[in-house]
Design goal:
single chain; 15 helices; elongated
């Protein structure tokens, strides 16, 4: 016994074809159970799952076939009984996850590898869409990178194992892969908190200051170890600060004016502002430079360490408490409360071990160009692209940003 019919239409995209199909179904009072429409390069794929009309199915199919022929569309019909339908319905109530795949250029081998990992963890693809502008066949440099978003169904037995497999695959094939639950929080995040050094800018400011003080290599080695989580942050910070004693205050302005902004940061900030997000810098660096970035990129909040300066010279100390990993997480929670948000509605971005507490506390924690210990500790990472890749983790589409 046929209880439902899946009809598919495929061919040139004619809006009249879709409308005429719906009109025919409306004339017969057909109950539509599910529907999906996709257009790829002006090629239409349209499917409708509808309740059977019983003996009247044949007459309706003839009308639909005639309509499809008039619009140069291929039509197909697949009968389902109630058991088939109920099984499908039960599958829809399972978990839904979004897999975001990003790379400078995406190949079939990369996407096939993603599909194999998803299948290994019992995830099946329900919908696939491109979020970035389609690649030009003429100008290969027109798009800075590519992003495909895959909506999946299923319930992986071990989500952390799934993320671990994707992390290994992303390293092997030079791409970034993020997997998120398709839930309310994914579309309700409204605050983004950034680390500064080696995240928003491509350098560690304290290393640049140390170069000016004549001890650059010594301090850079300590910084690198601290960011890998091998040293206590407060202790290593105090040691590095001490090497700056006597540095002339005028050096700060020169370094600030030449800070190398990370790829994608200006576009990311401009887009977040357009979308109504609040943004913050939570840095274990110095507020002199955070204020410079605030003026340049438009951050709403900045929290960083205050260098102590006396008689025009750096003293080698800071004023007040050090902004360390624990403080960053505390500040994130404070800002979320101030904005009337839960931590689940916050995005945090950082690269060093001292960023792990805030990456863990945020609903979406992104390890950006991060040390291995940070990538392993964060649920999401961007390692092959610029900061604006983060836009696509929140479902942003290039087509929605056309003025």
């Amino acid at each position: 016994m046929t209880d439902a019919i899946l009809m598919t239409l495929s061919g040139p995209n004619h809006p009249e074809g879709v409308q005429n199909t719906l009109d025919l179904l409306a004339d017969q009072n057909v109950n539509v159970l599910d529907m999906n429409l996709d257009v790829t390069h002006n090629h239409l794929n349209f499917s409708i799952l509808m309740e059977s009309l019983g003996e009247d199915d044949s007459a309706l199919k003839k009308e639909l076939l005639f309509m499809a022929h008039n619009h140069q569309l291929s039509a197909g019909f697949h009968a389902l009984d109630s058991n088939n339908y109920e099984q499908w319905l039960a599958e829809q109530k399972g978990g839904r996850f979004i897999i975001t795949v990003l790379a400078r250029s995406l190949s079939a081998s990369q996407l096939a590898a993603v599909g194999k990992v998803a299948a290994k963890h019992e995830l099946s693809f329900g919908h696939v869409q491109r979020l970035t502008t389609p690649v030009s066949l003429v100008d290969k440099d027109a798009a800075p990178f590519e992003c495909i978003e895959l909506t999946t169904q299923g319930s992986p037995k071990d989500i952390e194992h799934l993320r671990s497999d994707f992390l290994a695959l992303s390293t092997e094939l030079s791409m970034d892969i993020a997997v998120q639950a398709d839930d309310l929080y994914r579309t309700s995040r409204r605050l983004v908190c950034f680390d500064m050094d080696s995240t928003l800018i491509e350098v560690e400011v304290i290393d640049e200051l140390a170069k000016a003080a004549g001890c650059g290599e010594q301090v850079a080695a300590i910084t690198e170890a601290a960011m890998r989580g091998e040293l206590d942050f407060n202790e290593s910070f105090a040691n590095r600060l001490g090497t700056l004693k006597g540095l002339d205050e005028s050096v700060l302005a020169g370094i600030a004016a030449n800070l190398p902004i990370t790829e994608g940061a200006p576009r990311l900030m401009a887009t977040l502002k357009k979308l109504g997000y609040k943004t913050a810098i939570l840095s274990g660096g110095f507020n002199y430079f955070a204020e410079y970035l605030q003026q340049k990129l438009g951050f709403d909040y900045i929290y960083a360490n205050q260098l102590e300066i006396e008689d025009g010279k750096v003293t080698g100390r800071v004023v007040g408490d050090v902004v360390n990993g624990a403080k960053k997480a505390e500040l994130l929670g404070m800002l979320a409360e101030k904005e009337g948000l839960s931590p689940s509605q916050v995005i945090a971005v950082g690269d060093g071990a001292n960023d792990i507490p805030m990456l863990t506390k945020a609903g979406l924690g992104v390890a950006f160009q991060a040390k291995p210990v940070v990538r392993a500790g964060a649920k999401h990472s961007i390692s092959t692209l610029g900061l604006d890749a983060i836009l696509y983790l929140i479902g942003f589409k290039d087509s929605l940003n056309q003025d």
